[in-house]
Amino acid sequence: MSALLEARGLSAGYGQAHVLHGVDLTIEPGQVVVVLGANGAGKTTLMRSLAGLLPYDGELRVDGETVGAVRPDQMVARGVSLVPQGRGTLTALSVTDNLRTGAVGRRDASGVQEDIDRWFTTFPRLAERRHQVAGTLSGGEQQMLAIARALMSRPRLLLCDEISLGLAPVIVQGLFETIRGINEEMGTALLLVEQNAALAMGIASYVYLLEVGRVVQSGAAESFAQSDSIRRVYLGY
Amino acid sequence: MDIFLTRLISGMTAGSVYAMIALALVVVFRSSATINFAQGEFALFTTYVSWWLTQHGWNIWLTLVPALGLGFVMCAVAERFLIRPVRKRDETAVLIVALALFTGLNGLAGWIWGSDDKVYPRLVPIGDDSFLALGGARLYYDSIFVVLSLVLVVGALSLVLNKTGLGLQMRAVATNPESASLCGIKVGRIFMISWGLAGVIGSLAAAILVPVLPPGQLGLPGMFHMLIFGTVAALLGGLDSVKGAVVGGLSLGVGLAMINGYGSFFGGSISLTVALVVIVVVLGLKPNGLFGSRRLERV
Predict the structure, then answer these.
(1) From the CA of B20, how many Å to the nearest CA of chain A?
(2) List of chain B residues whose C-beta atoms are within 8 Å of the C-beta of residue A93
(3) Which residues have CB under 8 Å from B237's CB, separation 6+?
(4) Which parts pass through the membrane (chain B) (predicted)?
(5) Closest approach of B223 to chain A, Cα-based (Å)
(6) pLDDT, tens digit, for every residue of A2-39?
(7) Nearest-by-Cβ selection for A76 from B169, B176, B184
(8) Using CA atoms, how far apart are residues B242 and B78, in angstroms rounded to an integer?
(9) What is the pLDDT along chain B (299 residues), one digit of tens a residue?
(10) CA dihedral B173, B176, B181, B184 (to 10 degrees)
């Protein structure tokens, strides 16, 4: 069986600035993978290339099929959905419209409505604010909305770029419990890029360590957590 | 009082036309953050087609079908094959392509149909008694028709934007193209459709305005002033707001009618000067216009 998503020698950057230098990465269906790395290691660039927002060199395969130059909507159609850093909610649209927009690729209107209700049950605070314009939500609520919206396309892989950024610890805790639940219930694979390494490692089964655009170490999460150097630098204990 | 009413009516009529052109610009700007300076020339071209068909015995109303359809196709094709390829480079390139389209389309119309003015039929015929007496002023049926057309266009556009799946996608792209694409929206397709819709609105506006506003005939330079007034109306309203385009267009129309009417000591026509002043004041004091949400940084 082929991997859900596979990157081989992935390089990307912005104009003359090369950020990623030949990254190899594999995500199996239903797996939770974490990418650790310092600021500027290329984590966000990696996520943006995987989501189709950035052109890349190298090979990207979904379900064993090479995708080539790809747009974000095509990645969504292949089941890969990104929760971008800084949330990227549609601030001028209502909460409900944000969720409906997340499902534009779907044709099953009743299924879409079921999913909207489902995420309103998962995130009661979004339900309370369903008619409110997204730009008026708090940071935590916007992050919930961004996650729910990305899930509206029923992705098989959810890319989460720093979903804890700028949020209160108690809210971050809740978000992680939610995405862990989504992974367990729906079998949605997760690729997490996180500053909050301890929290991310807690739900991950596999870890990649990114340094200046290269994967310098990778392995099962348990063995990673036992490595002293990793613990000191990324987990802080 | 009656002279005031007369000026108010003529201002509303012209303002409705400005508002329609502003709407075309707004629909484009909302999608791709570009001001389509060739919008007026697209409309001029389709109006020539409409006129040419009337010369072949077509009913004027019937000619609107191919004219508006052509407006959609021309603008959509221009976006896809001329604007989008250069958009990746920078905004200046887009502006230059739009200017090239502006002169190119005008030249093409002149080459095909000649530079002499054409008599373009009125959609609503006007006779000696085709008006309602209103407090001493004459409210001509064609004025009513122009204002009603605006109401119709705004109604249809609002319906599309707020009640359809396409409208949801258009609003999403207007808010943030990148986030919209991450939702699975084919942003390029929305650009194309938006340009096409703008082409339809522009073509309709031109067909309505040519016989109503001076010089009253179809000529090559005819749409230039209209584009300026439409741009001012759109700027005043905020470039990405439907409501803003309507308010901007009507206030510009009425404002100019009053200034030209009561300020005759300024000399013949100071409309363009006023328009320029409005542009400078809006850009200087309130770049987002009255109802705009997006900043003007990319213009």
Answers:
(1) 24
(2) 168, 171-172, 175
(3) B22, B26, B243, B244, B245, B246, B247, B248, B249, B289, B290, B291, B292
(4) 6-28, 60-82, 94-113, 139-161, 190-212, 218-237, 244-262, 268-285
(5) 34
(6) 899 999 999 999 888 889 999 999 999 999 999 998 88
(7) B184
(8) 23
(9) 678 888 999 999 999 999 999 999 999 999 888 889 999 999 999 999 999 999 999 999 999 999 999 999 999 999 999 999 998 888 888 889 999 999 999 999 999 999 899 999 888 887 777 788 877 778 888 889 999 999 999 999 999 999 999 999 999 999 999 999 999 999 999 999 999 999 999 999 999 999 888 778 899 988 988 999 999 999 999 888 999 999 999 999 999 999 888 877 776 567 888 888 888 888 888 888 888 875 433 33
(10) -70
**Closest residue in B to A100 (Cα–Cα):** B168
B242: chain A residues, CB-CB within 8 Å: none
- Which residues lie below 8 Å from residue B64, measured CB to CB, with a gap of 6+? B50, B203, B204, B207
Residue type, position A47, single letter: M
Inform me whether the C-beta atom of residue B182 falls under 8 Å from chain A C-beta atoms: yes
Q: Which of A76, A90, A99, A147 to mutate to test binding with chain B, by most B CBs within 10 Å of its CB?
A: A90
Domain boundaries, chain A: 5-86+157-235
Question: Which CATH architecture best describes the domain A5-86+157-235?
Answer: 3-Layer(aba) Sandwich (3.40)
Give the whole-angstrom CA distance, residue B275 versus residue B281: 10
Interface residue B161 vs chain A (CB under 8 A): no
Measure in Å the smallest separation between the Cα of A233 and chain B Cα atoms.
Answer: 33
* DSSP, res A24: E
Q: Tell me the ipTM for this assembly.
A: 0.92
CA–CA min distance A47, chain B (Å): 12
Q: How far apart are alpha carbons B243 and B46 in whole angstroms?
A: 26
Cβ-defined contact of A93 to B186 (cutoff 8 Å):
no
What is the domain partition of chain B in residue ranges? Answer: 15-222
Whether residue A236 has pLDDT greater than 90: no
CB contact B103 to A (< 8 Å):
no
Residue where the block lists tokens 């797996």: A31
Interface test with B, best of A14, A71, A73 (most B CBs within 10 A): A73
Of the partner residues B174, B179, B293, the one whose CB lies closest to the CB of residue A88: B179
Neighbour-count burial of B167, counting CB atoms closer than 10 A to its CB (0-12 exposed, 13-18 middle, 19+ buried): middle
Dist CA B154 CA A236 (whole Å): 59
